[in-house]
Amino acid sequence: MPELKTRWDIFCTVVDNFGDIGVTWRLARQLVAEHSVDVRLWVDDLRAFERLCPQIDINLSQQWQEGVEVCHWPSEWPVTSAADVVIGAFACQLPHDYMDAMAAREQPPLWLNLDYLSAEDWVIGCHGLPSVKYQNVQKYFFFPGFQKDTGGLLRERGLLERRQQFQLSSAAQQQFLQGLGIERACDAQLISLFAYENTGLASWLDTLAADSTPTHLLVPEGRVLGDVERWLSVGELAVGALHVRQALTVQVLPFVRQDQYDYLLWCCDFNAVRGEDSFVRAQWAARPLLWHIYQQDDDIHLDKLEAFLTLYTKGLSTPAAEAISGLWRSWNAGADMAEHWLATRKHEAELQNHAQAWCLEQALQADLATALVQFYVNWI
Question: Among 13, 141, 257, 327, which residue's CB has the most CB atoms within a 10 Å radius?
């Protein structure tokens, strides 16, 4: 892929705390680092961004972070020229003055709507198609996805090799965990929990506590902490809090940067994740996972859940596929988890092998940043 001396503008409105900015920040950095393009990332909520990138100065309207020009998206739009490639992340509405600037260019920019990740079949038919038009500027759909003829998934160069090397080194894992204050017992399974509020959590924690195998549950700061507090019958859980109930140890971790979160996922035997960015990163961890999908009106998110399960469970034995599918469905319904978790545990080895195979299968596709660059090259 040739280097592109082009300028890209990526627009992000923070809707769900960290998911939208997590994806766009990761994409912006990769475009700069691997494709040598100039990127401006426009963000409307720098406080949410600060959690992912602590170096951010929330008081600055413009700053540089890891080669990316980060700009605060103001309520009153400044006079600025339009870029060669314009990405509106997740159907966010661009400022009207900026759209006029796009139309005023001698050569109209490539305008893309980077849509939400989905495994639904219709995505393949819509990926890359024209969308609306503003004056002389045509917008196109761009869908990340798990199948050929979609935009693929975010994956930095060398990611899987770094992950494999880390997972083969007990010393590297121990050093990382100790840096977070985690002392893992040698016989305990390590599980990470990053989720939205969920009424089904108590039944899962009950099952883990009663298990013959000890579990060390790592809970980064986030929305699910309230449910953990209620199960423990304690007040507000602070970072570093450690509680033991029977076979279950619960430990609260700080909200970590994206690169550290990767290492956390790589250390764990099983990862419960939420949203989009952490969902993709858990797949690159090549470990069994549990996805808490973002809830949408009329339960249309459940169609997305089923579409992914249909793809993901291919190649599994029928009992293993039924076990993991039942676990995901009960989790996303806020239902009792006990029966499905115990069924999943019976197929632990098969699910682990399958997670590794799925990771390698997805890595055969072009990554999302490369697919975007190739789309631009083909367009011009």
Answer: 327
